Each structure stands twice: as C-alpha cells, then as structure tokens.
UniProtKB/TrEMBL annotation:
SUPFAM superfamilies: ARM repeat. GO terms for cellular component: cytoplasm. PROSITE patterns: IMPORTIN_B_NT. The lineage of its organism: Eukaryota, Metamonada, Anaeramoebidae, Anaeramoeba. This is Importin subunit beta-1. Keywords: Cytoplasm, Protein transport, Repeat, Transport.
Length: 845
C-alpha cells in the first residue's frame, strides 16, 4: 500500500494534467475518508530514506497543509482536528518527524522542521506539546555534534519564533537567546545562517526579557562583527538582524550608534558591494522608528518613550554619501532595487524626521550639481530635490521652488529623455506637496506640461500626475472660478489625446490620464461646469463605441473593460458635479451604462454600478422606472462573491434601494436575504469581509418589517458568532476588527427593533433581546484605553432603543455591573452626546 502511495505522490507532480489531477483527487479522497491514516502514511513516506526525494518532499507539504491554512477560520478548524487525534498517534507523528531531522537530504530535513514546527504552534498554546516546551530542542542544539541536526534544530526554532505568541514561550526566551547567540559564532556557515534566521525572529520576542545594557551591547558587538563577515550571504543576514535589533532595542543604542555609523559607512561608500543597500536600509529603518516615536510623543506629552534624535545628528554626515550613490550607474533592470533607489528612499525618510532642516544640508549639493555639465550629476540633483519635497513646509520651500522652476523647465525642454523623465517626476511632486509655490509661473508650466504629454510614455505619465495634483491642490468646486479655469478645457482635451496614444496600451498611460481627468472634473470650480456638461455626451458616444466592439481575445476583452471602467469613472464624477442637471441626458446615459452590464464578460461592472448609483442619487424618484432592471444586475453582482469589490458594492446599493425605494424592491427581499445569508455562511471568507452584507440586513428589516421574522434565527446566529469572537483585548488591530463587526451588529439590531416596533409587533423579537444585551456587555469588558466613542454610543443607544421599545422591565436582561462599567467609561469621554446618553441610561439603572 505504501508503494502505491509513493506512486500517487509522484503522479501528483506529473507534467501530464490528467495524471496529476487523478493523483491529487486520490489524495483528497484519502483526506476526506481517513485523515488519521493519511497523516500516518505521509509521515512514513517523509521518513523513508529509500523513497524518492520528490515523493517525500510532497508528503511533507501535504501533511503541512493538513495543519495550517491562510484562512483564519479554516486554520482553527485544522488545529482542532489535529488536537482531536489520539495522543499516541500524534506522538508517533512527531517522533517520526524528529527522526527525519537526521535525513541525508537537506530538503527533507527542512521539510520535517517546517511540519513539526506547525504542530508545535498548534500544541504549545493548547498545552499539548509537553511541559518542557522547546527546552528539549534547545538542549539538543547544545549537545549534538551532528552539524546537520544542529542546523535543522535551528531551522525548526526559526519557524517557531516567527509565529509563536510571547506568552507561550516567555519562560524559554533567555535560554533561547543564550544558545542561539553561541551559534552565531559557529564556524560552520550553514549552522551560522540558520542561527541568524532564528535570531532575527527571536528579537521581537526578546523585547521584554532583554533589558541588561551589557547583554544588549554584547549582542550588538556580535552583530557588528557578523556584518563584516567575508561571506556576503552571512553578512547580509547579520545586516537584517541589525536592522531588526536596532528597531526593537532602539532605546539602548546610544552607546553603540557611533560605532554602527563608522562600520556601516564603509558599505554605503562601496556601491558595488551587495551590502550597500542593507547599510542604507538600516538608516531608513531608524528614520521610521524615530518618526514613530515623534508621532507618539506628539499625542502624549507624558510618554516616557526614549528619543535619541539620531537622524538629526547623522543627517549632515550621511546625506552626502547617499547623494554620491545617486550618481552611480547600475547595470540592473530599471525596476530592480539598487543603492540609488535605496538612497532616494533614505533621503526622503530622513526628511520625514528632520523636516525643514534638510534644506540647508542638500541645498549646496543640489545647486552645484544642477548646473553641472554632467548629465548624471544633474539627474542626481533633480532626484534629490524631488526626494525632500514631501515632508518640508511650503513656507520654507516656496522660495527654493520658485528659484528652481525656470531651471527645471529649461532642463525638461532641452535635455534628453532621461533628464526630462526625472524632471517631470520632481515637478509632479512639487505639484503634489507644494502647489501654491508654482502659481506665479503657472502659464509657463501648463504649456510645458502640454508638450510633455506628447513625449515618452514615462514622461507623459508624470505630466498626467502634475495635472492631477494641480487640480487636487488648487481646485475648489465650491468657488465660482479658480487658477486653472482658463486652462480647464485644454487640460481635458490634452489628457484625452494622451489616453488615445498608440503606446497607452503598453504602459499605464491611459489609466493615469483618465484618473487625472476625473480629478480635474471633481475639483473644477463652478465656471467649468459648462465644459463638464459638454463632456458627458462625448463620453456616452465613446462608451457606446467601446460597448459595440467585437472582442475576439482575452487581451482585447481586458482592453475593452479597462476603457469601459475609465469612462464610467468620468461619467460618475461628472454626474456628481452636474447634480440634477444630469437628468437632461440621464436616459441616454443610463442606457449606455446598462449596456456595459449587459456584457457579462466585462470587468467594468463595478464602475458601471457606481456610475448608475450616482445618477440614482441625483435624479431621485425619476430613477424609479430603472430600478427593476438595475436590481437584476445588482443581484448578479451580489452573487459574484469571488469578485468581492463587485459583490460588496452591489449589496451596499441594494441596502440603499431598500431605504429609499422600498416599494420597487421589496418583492425581491426573500431572494436577496437568502443570498446574503448564504454569503454570511460562506466558509472561505473571513468574518470581517462580511460586514457590508450583514449591515444590509438592517436596511431590509426596517423596510419589510415583520416579513423579516422567518430570517431572525439565522441573522441572530451570525450575530452570536460576532459576540463569541475570540480576540486579544490589548491588540489594537483585533479590537478594531471586532468594533467594525459590532457596529454592523448594532445596526442590524436597531433595524430589527425599529422595523417590528413600527407596526407594534415588538413582542415577536423579545426572545432575542438577551442576545443583543450580551454583545453590549462584551463591549463593556474592553479596557477604557481601547474603547471607541462610536461603539460606546451605539451600545448606549441600543440600550435606549430596547428600553423604549419594551419598557423598564427589560432592564433585567442586562448585567448591572457590566452596564455600570459601560456608563462609567462613557462618562469619562469628551463626547457630549455620549455623556448625555450615558446619563440617561444611568438614570434607568
């Protein structure tokens, strides 16, 4: 049987599709019928030194996939399934996996380490791994003289440290650090590389345990010694550990920072070295850390965070070296990461930390090189100038920009494509971050931009962004006229010409051109509306032509869909600007948009629905004859669950139709509710992706009132899953996710109460009130520092809705201690509305 199983595993890797699929199906059938037996056969295959490497390796991968999934819910299911197996069976699997650590094949050893680590990550948090935790593995690292086994043990620990929660390994962190630091000095390069990888993942776990400055300085010196290793791969890994260590233990770096600077600068000044990028990235990471601390200190003046101001101290010494890297030529693909690109990012990051102070540091470098006869020096100056624009003030930059614009325009018009490309990039960033600085030279710039739209595609794209950011920064739809009013029609016409260039298909030019048109339409002042009104029929005509194109290939379909999407975006933005005036042409416009939806293979359905939705909002009741047709497309969109954006926008519009046009959609409520409930129970989606679907039920329940009753049990079951959601009450991301779900649940609860009470049928939902109360009570258990005013308001508001609907007697369903805590937290906020609501709730209890 095992021999036959080996062949199945080999067949699952066969180049013949039919053979491969048949083998994969056999493995799946075994998984479905007897997973315990399958795990046993897989681990035996992996452990058998006489079997082919290919079958053994796949056996390990299949076994791993029986333990882990990217989907959180599925991951929990798989973990529980593994724990449900007999303990002796699990022990046998782990024993054979550990035995494979001694395999002659590196691939098999690594695969066994990966699979065993997944088992450990399941069992350790559930206290099923054993009382010693990973101590046995640590001891074996110290005892073994087998270099392959030592390397594999370190690889196993690397996988563990990458994913295990701190609380599950806290007691073994000190021993782990001691043993792994010993192996960082191992002379065997394979062992050393595995030790560094494990160390990198261990750093974050060590933050609370490693506080002795002598130990920290010892480790830093160990790392600094490592980054000078003659083996580039090892030195590179040590650089990664330095970046991670310095970020986590930033507060302890003051004794070492000068030494770090001296060692790293030798790599930065050697652009041919593979380590140059790593050394630059170290300083970028310090920038990010200091920026993070600045942000926290600005919001909490009493914070005890340590801020060393390293970047301010090194900037004037570091930036000239980074500037030199901008001038070097690299024989790399244009999109490949190199020291020049890393230097650009680092200069920009330094600017984000020190702000206007960077201007005096770079000014002489830019002035000297901008007027140089060397193209590379000019290019470096232009790039450097563009890199400091984002985080400097317009007050300080305006005179510098005004002085530089004539030079930039001259370089743009007279230089080669490379200089023009970087000049247009820098000017686009000026338009983005300091648009007010170019007002006095707007005429010359606009004319230059029009010329730029006819140049190379990269340059034209940058110019499209110039127009985009000028509209964003200088436009104002509330004003009667604006700085760009006189140029508006020419801007739109030239952007359209750029979008129709022959090379727009080969680049991103068409998309960027249309996005720029959309921004100009949205931000145009009132005196440009006449141009926008003339734009709509032209876009309808263009869309009709695109809709009727005969499409013969996937690439042609993709091109058609892209153009449809772009035109729909312009029509949507134009509708928003023209308001009710769009009704003059709405019939023709809607027909063109519906024709996009008629093309089932089109990828532009989301944009078409959004454009139709905008028209619906503008023309109100005049839209009602189109609702039956629109609903058909929305239901089709709702069913497109693997196109989540389309499905979600469809359900959001459906909810709005139930709110604003209930008489035209209520007849489809059963079909829609069942679809939504099906999606809510779809196992492949995280619960957080289902919020908009759940919220839609609130709109439907208000609309159809007691007709919603047959679905109450299913809806409340989903709400129960939200209430039972397990999350870390000190993890901000998990709390935010829970709050979003809770907000959706509160909307549904409120919708149900309102819908039934409107027709005096609240008694039908009384049995669900306790479940509603349980979610409120769970909210009250979250610490105050993680509370959200909106959620507290929703909690107190729902209490009010329940009491108003059912009377004071219903207060007995609430836990008075938890409600008291909820009231206390609400009263301690600065939100006056919430405080008033909390006082009223307090008066009831």
């Amino acid at each position: 049987m095992q021999e036959e199983f080996t062949q199945i595993l080999l067949n699952a890797q066969n180049i013949n599709l039919q053979i491969r699929q048949e083998a994969e199906q056999k493995i799946q059938n075994a998984r479905d019928s007897n997973p315990v037996l399958l795990t046993e056969m897989l681990v035996k295959e992996l452990n058998d030194e006489e079997k082919p490497i290919k079958s053994r390796h796949l056996a390990g991968i299949v076994l791993k996939n029986m333990l882990i999934s990217k989907n959180k819910r599925q991951r929990e299911i798989l973990a529980n399934e593994w724990i449900s197996y007999d303990e002796n069976h699990r022990t046998n699997i782990k024993t054979l996996l550990y035995k494979s650590f001694n395999s002659e094949s590196h691939i098999i050893r690594n695969t066994a380490a990966m699979v065993l680590s997944e088992i450990a990550l399941i069992e350790i948090p559930k206290n099923c791994w054993g009382t010693s935790g990973i101590s046995d593995m640590l001891n074996n690292i110290e005892k073994t003289t087998n270099p392959d086994l030592k390397e594999t043990l370190l690889t196993f620990l690397s996988y563990i440290f990458e994913d295990i929660p701190f609380e599950n390994i806290e007691s073994q962190i000190s021993d782990s650090l001691r043993i792994i630091c010993q192996e960082l000095e191992n002379q065997n390069e394979s062992i050393k590389k595995s030790a560094i990888k494990a160390f990198i993942h261990l750093i974050s776990l060590s933050e609370k345990k490693l506080t002795n400055i002598d130990d920290i300085n010892f480790i830093i010196n160990l790392i600094l010694q490592g980054i000078q290793d003659q083996n580039i791969e090892i030195a590179s890994l040590f650089y990664e550990s330095l970046i991670k260590f310095a970020t986590v233990f930033y507060q302890y770096l003051s004794d070492s920072i000068q030494k770090i600077f001296n060692i790293l600068i030798s790599s930065i000044t050697n652009p041919d070295s593979q380590l140059c990028i790593k050394a630059i990235e170290f300083w970028t990471s310090i920038c990010e850390k200091e920026l993070e601390i600045q942000t926290k200190l600005s919001t909490n003046s009493e914070s005890k965070l340590v801020y060393h101001n390293f970047i301010s101290q090194v900037a004037s010494h570091l930036i000239p070296y980074l500037f030199e890297n901008l001038q070097n030529e690299y024989e790399l693909d244009e999109n490949e990461w190199d020291p020049s690109k890393a230097s650009v990012v680092c200069i920009s990051s330094i600017t984000s930390v020190i702000g206007d102070s960077v201007i005096s540091i770079v000014s002489s470098l830019i002035e000297t090189n901008l007027t140089s006869s060397s193209q590379k020096q000019q290019e470096s100056a232009i790039i450097c100038f563009g890199s400091i624009l984002e985080n400097t003030s317009t007050t300080k930059m305006k005179p510098v920009i005004e002085q530089g614009i004539p030079i930039f325009l001259e370089l743009f018009n007279k230089s080669n494509q490379q200089i023009s490309k970087w000049t247009s990039w820098t000017i686009s960033r000026i338009c983005q971050f300091h648009p007010e600085s170019i007002i006095n030279q707007i005429n010359a710039m606009i004319e230059t931009f029009f010329n730029g739209l006819t140049m190379g595609a990269e340059i034209a794209i940058n110019i499209c962004w110039c127009f985009h950011y000028l509209a964003l920064g200088l436009g104002d739809p509330e004003k009667e006229t604006g700085i760009l009013s006189n140029y508006f029609q020419n801007i739109i016409e030239n952007l359209f010409l750029a979008s129709d260039r022959d090379d727009s298909d080969e680049t991103n030019l068409r998309v960027v051109s249309y996005e720029s048109i959309i921004m100009n339409v949205l931000k145009a002042p009132q005196d440009c509306l006449i141009v926008i009104s003339k734009l709509v029929p032209l876009m309808i005509e263009k869309l009709d032509i695109i809709n009727k194109l005969e499409v013969l290939s996937d690439s042609e379909r993709m091109k058609q869909s892209q153009i449809q999407s772009n035109i729909c975006g312009i029509l949507q933005s134009s509708t928003l600007r023209l308001g009710v005036e769009i009704s003059n042409i709405s019939k023709q416009l809607l027909e063109s948009l519906f024709n996009v939806l008629e093309i089932e293979e089109s990828f532009a359905h989301q944009e078409a629905i959004m454009a139709i939705h905008s028209i619906m909002n503008q023309i109100g009741e005049f839209f009602s004859p189109n609702i039956p047709r629109f609903v058909e497309f929305l239901i089709r969109g709702l069913k497109s669950i693997y196109q989540q954006n389309l499905s979600q926008i469809s359900v959001e519009v459906i909810g709005e139709l139930f709110r604003d046009f209930p008489d035209y959609i209520s007849s489809r409520s059963d079909e829609i509710i069942n679809l939504i409930l099906e999606i809510l129970n779809f196992p492949e989606f995280e619960i957080s992706t289902k919020i908009c679907y759940f919220t839609c039920l609130a709109d439907i329940s208000i609309s159809i009132q007691v007709k919603f009753e047959p679905y109450l049990d299913l809806v409340m079951e989903f709400a129960k899953r939200i209430c039972e959601l397990d999350f870390n009450q000190k993890n901000v991301e998990e709390i935010v996710n829970f709050y979003l779900l809770s907000k959706a649940a509160f909307e549904v609860f409120t919708g149900i109460i309102y819908g039934f009470s409107r027709v005096n049928q609240q008694s039908r939902i009384e049995k669900y009130i306790k479940q509603m109360a349980s979610l409120i009570e769970k909210i009250s258990t979250i610490p105050f520092e993680f509370q959200d005013v909106e959620i507290l308001q929703s909690s107190c508001g729902l209490i009010g809705d329940i009491i108003q609907c059912f009377g004071n007697d219903m207060k007995t369903v609430f836990n008075p201690l938890l409600i008291k805590e909820l009231i206390k937290m609400s009263l301690n906020t600065n939100d006056q509305n919430l405080i008033e609501t909390a006082k009223w709730v307090s008066s009831i209890f």
